[in-house]
Amino acid sequence: MKMNKVIAAALSVLKPKxxxxxxxxxxxxxxxxxxxxxxxxxxxxxxxxYTKEIMDAxxxxxxxxxxxxxxxxxxxxxxxxxxxxxxxxxxxxxxxLMPTEGMASDFSKTRVDPTITACKVLNTLFQQNAKKxxxxxxxxxxxxxxxxxxxxxTPTKLASKPIRVLIADEVDRYPRELKGEGDPLKLALQRTTxxxxxxxxxxxxPTVKETSSIVEWFDKSDxxxxxxxxxxxxxxxVLNWDSMKWETDSDGNYIKDSAHLECPSCEGKIYxxxxxxxxxxxxxxxxxxxKNIPGFHISSLYSxxxxxxxxxxxxxxxxxxxxxxxxxxxxxxxxxEPFEAIVEDLDIELLESHKFEYDAELPEGVLYLTCGVDVxxxxxxxxxxxxxxxxxxxxxxxxMIIGSPxxxxxxxxxxxxxxxxxxxxxxxxxxxxxxxxxxxxLADRVYKFTTPREHLRVAAVKGFGGEGIPIINNLSSKNRxxxxxxxxxxxxxxxxxxxxxxxxxxxxxYIYFPLNITHGCGDEYYKQLNSERRVLDLKHGVKRFIWxxxxxxxxxxxxxxYALAAYEMAAPNLExxxxxxxxxxxxxxxxxxxADGEENLISSGIKLY
Length: 609
Ligand SMILES: [Zn+2]
Description:
By secondary structure, the protein is α/β, with parallel strands linked by helices. Among the domains are: 19-226 and 284-300, P-loop containing nucleotide triphosphate hydrolases (Rossmann fold, 3-Layer(aba) Sandwich), CATH 3.40.50; 348-462 and 499-530 and 553-593, Nucleotidyltransferase, domain 5. The site of zinc ion has 8 residues, from loops.
């Protein structure tokens, strides 16, 4: 630590006092390389006037500046201008921190290198260097400083160097917590504490409100919003989506050129054509005078590179699709607003409307079958799901095979379940095309069943909880029997299932339940499906969502998760299957033919995909 202080002191003594602000420097020296920014050529702060005060906040006594922003407002250009300034004008040890190492190295190659090449003053810094090792993808050394481009997911590197200038980009995508190391942003900030004149930019589009780092930092700031004068009444207003209006024709289609903001004061219409003048006359206004950290919020409504019309068209398309994930993205990326997670209970009563009379084992619409299996000490539980177009899902059956899974007979029974055809009312059949068996308990016994059936897409799986783990992960075979086991991100799977259970509009992303009790979906089934809640949890000072069991038994939810994982794993081409199924000969034989063995199935049913 002492050494760091010595270096810090030495560097600050050697430095000439900077005269230019970052915006001055950028207007004078910063070139945007062709193909890397909205407008190649010399950077002009006046093209995005709201960026001036953000960048120049570093010329004040402020050590930390927070920016919560949408995409397309020049966020990355602000960061690159800051980087260039502290390389050329006020040389310092700089860390540019991205969410992952891969993103950092991409950013280094596609944005940082072209910026250095395009800006003469930056290029000169490196020409003075003789050694090639001084300029690598992740570390660029220049006189009196260096630029380290790291990923927030690699803790060893975060702790390795003293840093005066930290650019923490896309902080909402950093891992919440590194194993045994804590919050990566805090780790990086610790590297800067030896510098009295440290300069830290914390910048990101927000994600989920309750767990968002950028929302937390913005809350610690003086929360500035860009106010622009209404062209009609001259009142200074903040542009927000609530004021966005447009007109539609009698069919409900958007009428071209009608998108505008309505002034909350005079109800005057503000169109894209007004924007340039508005932005020039805008001022940042603090909304929390008790805080000292400069904090800025800016959305693409202010962007010089996005029109109101484009935003409205995008919004209409998403609203029509009823896709919550896309709406959330629109809120985060276009409006720079966090998304409030809905931590609501599942209304079991409403699931009543999801129950339908199936006219056969398989109702029309099903194109693909998957099975999820859970292993308990005295039984196996399985659930078969049918999948159709647009992620429609039909619960086909939910059953138990009673008996100890240490005995062969329960596995023989499961074999019968997996290797038979399931019938539509007209006699056509579908096989189960993919299955996932939980190997969390009696793993060796599970492998004995799955390994010889890998060609039938029967996979041993292991569930992992935790935010950010995708449903499907690579197969790993690091266990002692070298059996392939697939890691299933159960939290991601549950989030998908619960979102679809809350969708009460038949069609896309809808789940259908069988009315007839022989399909195994009685009251207990629905209670089990509703056995977990997504709650906000605070652990080691880090806020995150976890799934909490509210009932002891939840096998129906587990087998649903595994059957969904099987579907995601197989990723079938449903269009092709639909064609094949339409051409299938109507079966007339007795169903019993399918009761034992896969050979029957492959010759009589349709082929496995
Ligand atoms: Zn007005």
